[in-house]
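Bumping my old thread because nobody answered last time. Still need a sequence for this structure:
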């Protein structure tokens, strides 16, 4: 087949167009796929130290990625990963994850702790983590059904001051004992 004919056949079959598309700007799905190795398919993590990110609001995702990128929020790996993407790409990825259903995590929890946490939740955390930590629109991150070890690491960072808390969250957290905070985290983790 001559070069001209080959080109005509490829164009006709759409193969060349397909190749041209790949080298163009990445789509939201392509970007989100680069996160799947750690955060699971569509943001539903299977490892307890890596958070599920499905169902978070786009605003939360963009703010969080910027905080990792600038170093404002401490991290083991996300600071480096964040530096590889632009604001526009954060928005694309954020819009993709915002459309995914909140991941349901099955993990072993202490029923008595979950119950104790449910009693502390309304007065201390509901205002900003509404619907038992499952409301995306409050832009505070989805806590419902999140991995408990991840929530516990987050609380350690908050209490150590290396990750900044919202002022009114800090006021509540400072008043609670470690046991009460752990009960609250178990309560959030237990949501299905
Ligand atoms: C190498 C594994 C790895 C990859 C790849 C990865 N992450 Fe992460 N991610 C983590 C870990 C671990 C954390 C916890 C923070 C830390 O220690 O870096 C995290 C935390 C996050 C959080 C915070 C969640 C919350 O509830 O506040 C967001 C958002 C996030 N990652 C988004 C992404 C996006 C978007 C991508 C793809 C561009 C991505 N991650 C790729 C491992 C990874
Ligand atoms: C005044 C509002 C407010 C209150 C009250 C509040 N929080 Fe938060 N919380 C936030 C915001 C905003 C974030 C997101 C912080 C960020 O972007 O780093 C957050 C994040 C968190 C995270 C980390 C989520 C993640 O995915 O990394 C945990 C855990 C948490 N809160 C627990 C609690 C608990 C437990 C209470 C009740 C004692 C509480 N919060 C009360 C506003 C609040």
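Sorry it took so long. Here it is:
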């Amino acid at each position: 087949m001559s070069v001209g004919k080959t080109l005509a056949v490829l164009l006709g079959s759409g193969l060349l167009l397909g190749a041209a598309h790949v080298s163009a700007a990445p789509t939201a799905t392509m970007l989100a796929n680069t996160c799947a190795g750690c955060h699971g398919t569509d943001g539903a993590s299977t490892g307890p130290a890596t958070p599920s990110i499905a169902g978070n609001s786009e605003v939360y995702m963009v703010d969080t990625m910027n905080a990792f990128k600038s170093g404002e929020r401490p991290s083991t790996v996300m600071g480096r990963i964040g530096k590889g993407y632009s604001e526009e790409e954060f928005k694309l990825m954020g819009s993709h994850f915002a459309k995914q259903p909140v991941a349901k995590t099955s993990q072993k929890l202490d029923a008595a702790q979950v119950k104790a946490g449910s009693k502390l939740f309304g007065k201390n955390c509901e205002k900003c983590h509404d619907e038992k930590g499952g409301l995306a629109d409050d832009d505070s991150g989805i806590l419902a059904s999140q991995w408990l070890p991840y929530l516990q690491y987050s609380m350690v960072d908050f209490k150590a001051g290396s990750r900044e808390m919202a002022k009114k969250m800090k006021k509540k957290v400072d008043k609670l004992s470690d046991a009460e905070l752990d009960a609250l985290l178990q309560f959030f983790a237990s949501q299905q």
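Residues 10-14, 16-20 have pLDDT under 50 and may be disordered. Let me know if any region looks off to you.
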